[in-house]
Amino acid sequence: MVLTAGVVAVQGDVDEHADAIDRAARERGLEVEIREIRDAGIVPDCDLLAMPGGESTTISRLLHRGGIAPEIRAHVAADKPLLATCAGLIVASSDPNDDRVDELGLLDVGVERNAFGRQKDSFEAPLDVAGLDEPYPAVFIRAPAIESVGDAAVLATWDDRPVAVRDGPVVGTAFHPELTPDSRVHDLAFFGNDDATVPALEDAA
To answer: What domains sit in the chain, N to C, each tagged with a CATH number?
Structure first.
């Protein structure tokens, strides 16, 4: 059984996410085929999906213009896992606090852009993440923070602010898990989710 993993490739660390997904899958004894998503028609074939960071207004515009946005919503509605990171978190949120962002409404959270500073304020921090046994080396770059949480579950906080959440099959992080060799967040999002199991994962294992 080969799982199809899609990485939204309109902006952001596409190759890095692809590598992290591959590492996480191999550690589970699974095989994945990575598909880069720049056009409509690919997401419906994906078992799991990553939406990288970048610039949230640009990402949201390109997703809607290209017809990818409704496919991502349908992916989540089918209980297939999605990992949305940094600007991807903003686009996936229900309240991006920015009228320029046409949000997807997949995470019941409100966010604050650049909450931890600009590019020059980038930092790495050891996070205690629910579901992980050891602290995770999270990389924050122009990172948003989650300022309000509805039905989503908080997975991690930094400086008393939520920076990782789960809402059904969707995991959102304010940090960049693809920028570290530690693939545990990708594993948690795609293969360690009791609420949203990758289709046929048990048969593939």
So the answer is: 2-204 (3.40.50.880)
Residues contacting 10, CB < 8 A, separation 6+:
37, 38, 54, 58, 59, 62, 63, 66, 68
Catalytic annotation present for 176: yes
From 86, 103, 112, 186, the catalytic residue: 86
Judge whether 86 counts as a catalytic residue. Answer: yes
Residue 89 is which amino acid? L
| SS3 state at 110 | strand
- Written as tens digits, the pLDDT of the chain (205 aa) is 799 999 999 988 999 999 999 999 999 999 999 999 999 999 999 999 999 988 999 999 999 999 999 999 999 999 999 999 999 999 999 999 888 999 999 999 999 876 665 555 578 999 999 999 999 999 998 888 899 999 999 999 998 899 999 999 999 999 999 999 999 999 999 998 544 434 434 433 3
- Catalytic residue selected from 46, 71, 75, 176: 176
